[in-house]
Write a structure and sequence with these properties.
Mean pLDDT: 83
Low-confidence stretches: 14-24
Structural class: alpha/beta
Distance between the termini: 76 Å
Length: 163
C-alpha cells in the first residue's frame, strides 16, 4: 500500500508530535520499582503499584501508591494529594502537602512542622482490608448459592392443579 505525499507528511507530523508529548511528560509511573524524586527534580505526578515513593523535591500534582508507602523527606513538597492504599505516609520536618493526605490500611506519621493544606484521613490497620478481601467474595458467593437454591426449588415445585 502506497501513501500519497500528503498522507506521508501527516503521518510524520503525527509521529513527531506524539514523541514530543512523550518526551515532555514529567509523570512518573512504576510497577514494582520504587520512585525517588530528587531534591532538584520537578515531577508532575507520581504513581506506584507495588512499590514506594520518596519525595525530596517537588511534585506539582498527586502522589499515589498501591501497596507501598510515601515518604516526604525534609523540604519535600507535594502540590496535590498524597494517597496510599495498603501503605504508610511519613512526612518529615518542613514538608508541605497542599492537598489531602489519605491512607487506607496504613498509618500517617507526621512531624509537627509538616504542613498539610487539606484533610488528613487515616483508615489505619490492615484488618479492614483483609475483611474486605474475604468478606465481599463470601457475600457474593452466598447470594449466588441462595439464587441457585431458589431457582431449583421453583423448578421442582409441583404445578398447580387445574380446575
Amino acid at each position: 500500500m502506497r501513501l500519497n505525499p500528503a498522507s506521508q507528511c501527516l503521518l510524520i507530523i503525527l509521529a513527531l508530535s506524539t514523541a514530543a508529548f512523550a518526551a515532555g511528560s514529567r509523570d512518573r509511573t512504576e510497577v514494582g520499582h520504587n520512585i525517588s524524586v530528587g531534591p532538584d527534580e520537578d515531577v508532575s505526578e507520581a504513581t506506584c503499584f507495588g512499590c514506594s515513593i520518596r519525595v525530596k523535591g517537588h511534585v506539582a500534582g498527586d502522589v499515589t501508591t498501591f501497596g507501598g508507602s510515601i515518604i516526604v523527606e525534609e523540604n519535600g513538597q507535594i502540590d496535590g494529594d498524597a494517597t496510599s492504599f495498603a501503605g504508610n505516609i511519613r512526612m518529615e520536618r518542613e514538608v508541605e502537602v497542599n492537598g489531602d493526605v489519605t491512607v487506607f490500611g496504613g498509618k500517617v506519621h507526621r512531624d509537627p512542622t509538616a504542613r498539610v493544606g487539606g484533610d488528613v484521613t487515616n483508615l489505619g490497620g490492615g484488618g479492614w482490608i483483609l475483611l474486605l478481601i474475604f468478606a465481599v467474595p463470601l457475600v457474593v458467593f452466598g447470594f449466588l448459592v441462595a439464587g441457585i437454591v431458589w431457582l431449583i426449588r421453583r423448578l421442582l415445585r409441583p404445578a398447580p392443579a387445574v380446575a
